[in-house]
Design brief:
With 277 residues, this protein is α+β, with helices and mostly antiparallel strands. Helices cover 29% and strands 27% of the residues. The chain has helices spanning 40-50, 87-94, 129-139, 188-201, 207-212, 244-273, and strands at 2-3, 9-10, 16-24, 61-62, 71-81, 99-106, 115-123, 141-144, 160-170, 174-181, 229-235, 241-242. The protein starts with a strand and ends with a helix.
Length: 277
């Protein structure tokens, strides 16, 4: 007996529960189902229906809800399927949508997510890295992130969340900010990035973060652009069965993008650095 996302119960004994590891790029219309059918979940479930893996668009559970413009290599969905999935078969139907199902596992119960790992790639615009690191340390731990999330109009969700760690690396071109947490509120990571950029730019000092974490203080914080955000992992104990062909095609596609984007980076930097005489 399985409860789906709408709390209805599936009694069909011909179905078995599977977890699918899902990767996607930032060009999609958000992870959740959309009215126009453009959501990542819509595209995946429509594909599974067309290949006769299921007759329903219901998703039982997922690893993380990402907005439009966010990429992922570590999200997952839990669904009921009629038969064991052939990932190369699914890939042939879904590849042009910037979505890859790279692994799967038949399961008997919904897995517990140990932590979620988000990575943000921030253009290194001569930020003060030490100030960013100092601010990040204050965010680690259990706090009220009411100022660093989209307002919950239902007031049913607690703003209390736990961040396990924030790791920061940088080079001449970009800063990599890895955030590990138990769970995240809507827009929480992107607002954290905005606050850290304020510190790096010198627009705010370290006390600003202390104020934002104060339960008696309220201030809106804008979101950082979604295109820099990646859901790296929604970590469980699941040992996926990966499809080597799909993984190879996935890496090949991103290698092409890396080459093209590196060329664009080189051209753009040459133009920006040029000094007119």
């Amino acid at each position: 007996m399985v409860i789906d996302g709408n709390n209805s119960i599936n009694h069909n004994k011909n179905y078995e529960m599977y977890i699918l590891r899902v990767c996607y790029d930032s060009n999609n219309g958000g992870f959740q189902s959309q009215k126009d059918g453009s959501g990542i979940c819509d595209i995946i479930m429509d594909t599974l229906i067309s290949l006769d893996y299921t007759d329903s668009k219901k998703i039982i559970y997922y690893g993380g809800r990402t907005d439009k413009g966010v990429s992922s290599i570590g999200n997952f969905i839990v669904v009921n399927l009629k038969k064991e999935p052939i990932l190369s078969h699914i890939y042939s139907k879904i590849k042009d949508n910037g979505i890859w199902i790279v692994g799967y596992k038949k399961i008997n119960q919904i897995p517990k997510v140990k932590y979620r790992h988000y990575r943000y790639i921030l253009y290194n615009d001569n930020y003060n890295i030490e100030k960013i690191k100092e601010g990040a340390k204050l965010l680690i731990g259990t706090h009220s992130f009411h100022n660093l999330s989209k307002k919950d109009r239902s007031k049913n969700k607690s703003p209390i969340r736990t961040i396990y760690d924030i790791k920061i690396k940088h080079n001449d071109f970009y800063i990599t900010i890895d955030i590990f947490g138990e769970s995240f509120l809507w827009n929480m990571v992107r607002k954290i990035i905005t606050v850290l950029t304020y510190l790096g730019e010198g627009k705010k000092d370290i006390d600003y973060i202390k104020k934002l974490l104060d339960t008696n203080y309220k201030e809106g914080v804008p979101n950082a652009p979604p295109e820099g955000l990646i859901l790296m992992d929604a970590k469980t104990d699941i040992e996926y069965t990966y499809d080597n062909y799909v993984l190879r095609k996935f890496k090949e596609e991103w290698k092409k993008r890396l080459i093209n984007n590196t060329l664009s980076l080189g051209v753009s930097k040459s133009i920006v650095d040029y000094k007119f005489k």
